[in-house]
Specification:
Elements (H helix, E strand, L loop, with lengths): L3 E9 L10 E9 L3 H9 L5 H16 L7 E6 H12 L6 E2 L9 E2 L10 E2 L27 E5 H11 L1 E2 L3 E7 L5 E4 L4 E7 L5 E6 L5 H12 L6 E5 L8 E2 L16 E6 L38 E2 L2 E2 L13 H4 L30 H11 L2 H8 L17 H13 L10 H10 L11 H15 L19 H15 L3 H6 L1 E8 L6 E8 L2 E3 L6 E10 L7 E8 L4 H11 L6 E9 L2 E5 L15 E8 L6 E11 L10 E13 L5 H12 L6 E3 L2 E3 L3 E2 L2 E2 L4 H11 L3 E5 L2 E4 L8 E5 L6 E3 L11 E7 L2 H6 L25 E3 H9 L2 E2 L6 E3 L4 E3 L2 E8 L3 E6 L2 E3 L4 E3 L3 E3 L5 E2 L15 E11 L6 E8 L4 E6 L2 E5 L9 E8 L13 H4 L2
Parallel strand pairs: 6-8, 11-15, 20-42, 21-25, 26-36, 37-45
Antiparallel strand pairs: 1-2, 3-7, 3-9, 4-5, 9-10, 11-12, 13-14, 13-15, 16-17, 18-19, 18-41, 21-22, 23-24, 23-25, 26-27, 28-29, 30-31, 32-33, 34-35, 34-36, 38-41, 39-40, 42-51, 43-44, 46-47, 47-48, 47-51, 48-49, 49-50
Length: 968
């Protein structure tokens, strides 16, 4: 065991701020054989690549184990960091070994990667922006992992010590969320535009959203050279005064300040404040709902009192035991939630201002605030249903903020609303939405509905119920029991309107144990079945060495999975019922990836890749898999053997071993799998016929086999029933080396080498002149690519699927993924069970989420498939398995759509919503609202669909199905 040493040394910290210029003590743990690394690292001499990598990994682990608010991270260009990673890894795609070493462990790197130059962050900066304090501005479109990485402070300091460059871009680790706290690096601090009322001069100020208003005052006064007591700063959002930002410890985040918004500085002169900027009672643009002045403040019956036309601000931390009036004090224009908004006040034409990449939020909100049952609820008195004690919610704050926003949207005519207070509350409940990055409208919708439910849950003390299995009971009995238990713990307007119930059936593939559960759902996430196909060429190998490899070209769905490819290949190559296929990708003559998961999407496989499939017995997982890679000896010069090195070539072969014990078992397996490659060979006057007939290996006669074995010098006397009978010779049939897969360790294999049975054994087969003479290796060369791209690309017509085919794909039976195994109570083990979903109880408001975003090993993708969905008379009767319709119909009408335009990581969200009383559709694009015809609302941008149940009229005839349903 190596001795562990600790090294301590001093170096100047590289924090760009003068207050941080001091000496820092760094203590890092390393191993005894890293003395040279540490000594040279401290003296500035370049280290070996692996030594740099080791130091960075150790410092990164230290940072991960000590996460706390205020820790410093540095933004580093991913372009530069990737070049550094390539340099420190030096793990090119294959490894070569020195043949002359005793254990074949000498690694030869064919193409060393050059050391990167100085750190260069210029590609992630916005140039030419004059900002105060010489702050450097990052491009807003940057994505972590794609454009930049976050390096802990100690990592940055080491990288800067080695490479210099920059500039340094420090960022703080902050804690977000009041109840579900998360640590996040604040890559984009809050950017505020300061306007000086004296001369209209504008300055950009960047502060953390966690900075206090007191820090804001200090920064502003220092920049403008004024005394704090003579300054006051206004929230000047949209160039309108809202409220004075009092000099206090309240954070900028809780003050609802938004990215890139204006703040106004007023300076007292001769004891007087400027009069030209005085604010009247209409100055607060968000105070759009009239407030009854007769109401008293400080109680639930009335709103907080107004001071100078703006709401009194709420300071300090939230106290769960406070009265409901404290909830309103943190809002921009509070009012009485017990006041009913009459029909005369209604509108529904107001847009929502974009606060900085908040189109996703605006789209989801517009769909919800045009949901009739939700509108009716929040326009009435809902104060008695606010749940202040629920620890899973925001103690009513989120529900009140949403209710206020809904009332503004339905009371403001066509004036656009800035949902600042609501966004602040949402960020406190779900911290991931507290910043100004683009997000997913469906993801926000899920969190918002959950948050509203918890804030409005009528159940104050949730009872406990033990989960029971169905145990053969009737489905109706189990479903009703599960629904009663769910309602006993969850009872709100959201549950009443938006939640349904589905049946989930799991079947164990081993013991056939059936488990049936009934679970609630808030929305249905539907996959998009594709009608577009692609051709894929895969070379099939026989693991038993019975037939030559053969390429097959099959047609599969473009957005299918590996299971679809395996089924198509199985049909093409006449796979028997007791066989299975193992798919793999070959790159630079080694297997770089096995497609073990049948659900892995085919979109992860590129056209230029090389795919192989190995035919195995059905239960090959129970056998030891043998992977065989091939090498040859390349001579650097004809007269100097010392310059030779072994290189990989040919396609790897994969076979299986039954209870392997020694090297002889591996040798026999290699002999077997190479047998179809045996060529006709002449030795003297003797003709050796390898039995290659029609691509299959037939048994050679004893004489030729004996001749072959004798010529090989293998000591094998004969081949009986596919097994070689050996003599006492210790020499193997082939020159084989055991490897760890990528060649880090490699040692010669002998006949008596012990083999430990395992899931996978790697060997290297060293080809000599003898093997080249006996075997035709051309069958293992030049694998075809998956798809050869034509020079003239054919335009693929836009695919179209129906909503019903999406629903069918969602409800079809399929196996669980390897990462989602089910614990079988009968087997007492985790099993990859099959799962089947069925709809059991449908809600009044049914939300369909179309899964347009897909993720794979190499890429993220958005599906622009056009989904043909019914607008009227969506009849789901055939999908509901419950015999009792609960007195309601299963016919629905569309009333809202959340749209997404563009690709991943960006794009734009809008919404279509129907004003049902007018029977007219409108397009909500942030603050812009325009009418749209019903014929134009269907597009490939449709992302989330909102349907409302059609009420059953007494003595009404059957509902006429929609045209989409007649011809889906």
């Amino acid at each position: 065991m190596k001795e562990v040493k600790y090294f301590s040394f001093y170096f100047p910290t590289l924090d760009p701020y003068p207050s941080a210029c001091n000496l820092g003590l760094l203590t890092i743990m390393t191993m005894l054989d890293s003395d040279y690394m540490m000594e040279n690292g401290a003296s500035g001499i370049p280290l070996a690549p692996e030594e740099e990598k080791g130091i960075v990994e150790e410092l990164s682990k230290q940072a991960e184990s000590n996460l706390k608010e205020g820790n410093l991270y540095y933004v580093v260009s991913n372009r530069w960091y990737t070049s550094w990673e390539r340099y420190t890894r030096q793990d090119v795609d294959y490894y070569l070994f020195d043949k002359d070493t005793a254990d074949s462990r000498s690694l030869i790197s064919p193409k060393p990667v050059d050391r990167p130059g100085p750190i260069d962050n210029s590609d992630i900066l916005v140039h030419g922006i004059d900002t105060e304090g010489n702050d450097l501005d990052l491009r807003r479109s940057l994505q972590e992992g794609c454009d930049y990485i976050l390096a802990p402070q100690l990592v940055w300091e080491k990288l800067f010590c080695w490479y210099k460059g920059g500039p340094a871009l420090p960022r703080n680790l902050i804690s977000q969320g009041d109840f579900n706290k998360q640590f996040n690096v604040e890559v984009f601090p809050l950017c505020l535009k300061l306007i000086d009322s004296r001369d209209n001069r504008q300055l950009i100020i960047r502060l953390s959203k966690k900075a206090s208003l007191q820090e804001l005052y200090q920064r502003v006064c220092a920049l403008r050279g004024i005394e704090p007591e003579k300054a006051r700063i206004w929230d000047y959002f949209n160039k309108q005064k809202h409220e004075i930002l009092q000099d206090s410890l309240k954070t900028l985040e809780k003050a609802a300040l938004q990215m890139d918004q204006d703040i106004l500085l007023e300076v007292q002169e001769d004891g007087f404040w400027p009069s030209c900027f005085s604010m009247d009672s209409t100055g607060n643009e968000l105070a759009l709902v009239p407030i009854d002045p007769s109401r008293s403040s400080g109680t639930i019956e009335g709103s907080p009192s107004l001071s100078n036309g703006h709401s009194t601000s709420y300071g300090g931390s939230f106290n769960p035991r406070s009265t409901l009036s404290s909830i309103f004090a943190d809002t921009e224009d509070s009012y009485d939630i017990s006041k009913t908004v009459t029909k005369a006040d209604r509108g529904g034409f107001a847009g929502l201002q974009n606060l900085g990449n908040t189109c996703f939020m605006n789209s989801a909100i517009q769909c919800l605030v045009h949901t009739p049952p939700i509108v009716e609820y929040f326009l009435q008195d809902y104060s008695n249903e606010i749940n202040e004690q629920n620890p899973l919610g925001l103690h009513g704050e989120l529900a009140v903020a949403f209710g206020e926003l809904l009332r503004k949207l339905w009371s403001s005519g066509r004036t656009a609303i800035a949902p600042r207070a609501f966004k602040g509350k949402l960020g406190r409940f779900a911290p991931q939405f507290s910043g100004f990055n683009q997000h997913d409208s469906q993801e926000l919708l899920a969190f918002l509905l959950d948050g509203l439910h918890e804030d409005l849950n009528r159940v104050k003390q949730k009872p406990y119920f033990e989960i029971k299995d169905s145990d053969g009971r009737p489905d109706e009995e189990v479903a009703d029991e599960c629904w009663r238990h769910h309602k006993a713990r969850n009872d709100s307007i959201i549950v009443d309107v938006c939640q349904g119930q589905y049946k989930s059936t799991l079947v164990c593939p081993v013991c056939n144990k059936i488990s049936i559960t009934f679970d609630p759902f808030m929305y249905l996430s539907l996959p998009l079945p594709s009608t577009v196909t692609r051709t894929m060429t895969v070379t099939v190998f026989y693991s038993d060495g019975s037939v030559l490899p053969m390429p097959y070209t099959v047609t599969v769905l473009q957005h299918g999975c590996c299971k679809d490819l395996s089924m198509a290949l199985g049909t093409a190559c006449c796979l028997s019922s007791d066989e299975s296929l193992l798919l793999a990708e070959v790159y630079d003559y080694h297997i770089c990836h096995y497609f073990d998961s049948p659900l892995e999407p085919l979109s992860s496989i590129k056209d230029g890749e090389h795919l192989v499939a190995y035919r195995f017995p059905k239960k090959w997982e129970e056998l030891t898999r043998l992977e065989i890679c091939h090498r040859y000896l390349e001579k650097c010069s004809s007269d100097n053997l010392e310059g030779s090195q072994r290189k990989l070539f040919l396609t790897p072969l994969v076979t299986y071993l039954e209870n392997p014990q020694t090297g002889t078992d591996i040798d026999l397996a290699v002999y077997r799998v190479l047998s179809p490659l045996r060529r006709k060979t002449y030795f003297g006057s003797a003709k050796i016929n390898g039995g290659m007939e029609n691509g299959s290996f037939s048994e050679a006669n004893d004489e030729s086999t004996n001749c072959l074995a004798t010529h090989n010098g293998l000591g094998y006397q004969s081949m009986q029933n596919g097994k070689l009978e050996g003599t006492s010779s210790e020499k193997l049939n082939f020159q084989l080396c055991i490897s760890n897969g990528r060649g880090f360790s490699c040692w010669p294999l002998s006949k008596n080498s012990p083999i430990k049975p395992g899931q996978l054994v790697h060997v290297m087969l060293d080809w000599t002149y003898k093997e080249q003479e006996l075997y035709d290796s051309s069958y293992l060369k030049d694998l075809p690519v998956v798809h050869k791209v034509e020079l003239i690309a054919k335009k693929t017509p836009q695919e179209a699927v129906s909503l019903f085919s999406c629903l069918d794909a969602f409800l079809k039976e399929e196996p669980l993924g390897p990462d989602d195994m089910w614990y079988c109570p009968s087997c007492k083990e985790h099993r990859q069970a099959t799962k089947k979903l069925d709809l059991w109880r449908l809600p009044d408001v049914l939300v369909f989420h179309l899964k347009r975003f897909s993720y794979s090993r190499y890429l993220k993708n958005k599906l622009d498939t056009f989904v043909n969905f019914p607008i009227h008379n969506l009849d789901l009767s055939k999908y509901v398995r419950s015999k009792d319709a609960f007195g309601q119909s299963h016919v629905y009408e569309l009333y809202a759509i959340s749209n997404h335009y563009g690709g991943l990581g960006g794009g734009h969200y809008t919404a279509y919503a129907k004003l049902i009383e007018e029977n007219s559709w409108y397009h909500f694009d942030d603050a812009r609202v325009s009418s749209v015809s019903e014929a134009d609302i269907k597009s490939s941008a449709a992302y989330v669909l909102f349907y409302q149940r059609v009420k059953v009229e007494p003595n009404a005839g059957p509902v006429k199905p929609s045209q989409d349903q007649v011809n889906p």
